[in-house]
Amino acid sequence: MSAFLASIAADDDALARFLESGEQEMNILEKENHPNIPDSVRDFDVNVNQLNAELSSFGVKASLISPGDGIYAEKAFIVAVDTLTNLMKHHRSAIARAEQFEEKLQRAKQEVLYLSKQNSSMDQNNKRLEAALASAELNGRAAQSAADDVRQKLQREVQELKTQLQPLQQRDKYYTSEMRKKDREMERLQKQLNGVLFDKRRVARPTMHTERDGFQLEQARSVNSNEAERFCQMVSRTYEQRNAELLAENDELREAVHQAQRCLRGEIEKISTVSHSSASEVNSPLQPRACQTPNTPCMELLPMQMVRSAVRASLQRKIEQLALRTAAAEHHVSYASAHSDGSEADAHELRAQLEHYKDLVEAQRQLIHEAVPGMTPSGARNRDESTGFPRVSSHSRRRSATPLCTPDVRATLAAQLDAQLSCSPLPTVPSTDEH
């Protein structure tokens, strides 16, 4: 195109000038639109080298080349495209790194905000703790001053107590020494009392040697001074008081035993009266003999061991009689219920009365056993397993010397026996002849 224009302009000078001016204007416009385009090939090589240096500083491995001798424009274009591609990849990676840095920056900002809030809260806590510490220091100083005041007060009280305790300690020492003196005096008087009692026994029961030796007899009589007589009277008075107390307790004991015997005897006689109303029970071999317990004033004059054995034997006989009559009543009730034409309700009522009677006898036996320890009712342990009736044995009574009950137990025994006998009437045992 340029060669064709040049051939046309060769013949026409005006056209040549016009084309030259147009070319200059085109170059000026090209310079204005593309200021980086070099004016010559040398300037283009300089620009390419500058771009390669900048790309290498950015980390792009490809480098631009300028077309020239031995380098085709296509190769330079391909190298430029590769360089541009590497530059785009580098740009994308830079954008990704920038986004990561931005995220890290956001997280760092959030952490900074959180740490600032924590710092402000810690500052507030620190201020509050400082205020609490200041108040605690004030309270501590106040408590320390109060403790010092209390310590001083206690020290003053201790000093006062020490001053008050000194006469008490002196008095205690004095009384301790006096007690020791009294103890030694008491030991001496006890020895003297023992000697006086021994001498009185010797004087009261003189032997053959003392009767013959008048000097020893006179010496023994001379030892019994007024003080020895006073001690002897005190000892005898003490023994007499104790003897009177024992006699009064013995009287209460005998009265309680007599009352219990009377209650038991009344129950046995009541059962005997009911039992003798039927003819079959009169001829029964199980009918025991009514034994009246001797309750005469002569028993008061007997020795204690004999009275105790007689009372125990009497109570045991009464318990055996109660057991025999209970067994006989049970036998007759069972026989009457087996051979009678009565209704089932009557039989049930009789059984209930019989059970109540058994409970009453067992309660009386327990009360007597608690009142008189060591006595076991023979009717409870001498029961035949085949027939169910008690076995009477003459060798079943225990005659061991066991002390009787106390006054409290005696009074309780009498009261409970009277209450149970008054509130629980004995059942009437029907005879076999009525059916």
UniProtKB/TrEMBL annotation:
Specify the superkingdom.
Eukaryota
InterPro entries the record matches: Afadin/alpha-actinin-bd
Region Disordered: start-end pairs: 374-405
Alphabetized UniProt keyword annotations: Coiled coil
**Could you list the residue ranges forming a coiled coil in this record?**
91-171, 236-263
The similarity comment for this entry is:
Belongs to the ADIP family.
PANTHER family for the chain:
AFADIN/ALPHA-ACTININ-BINDING, AFADIN_ALPHA-ACTININ-BINDING PROTEIN
State the name under which the record lists this protein: Uncharacterized protein
Q: Which organism is it from?
A: Erythrolobus australicus
Which lineage is the organism of this entry classified under, starting from the top rank? Answer: Eukaryota, Rhodophyta, Bangiophyceae, Porphyridiales, Porphyridiaceae
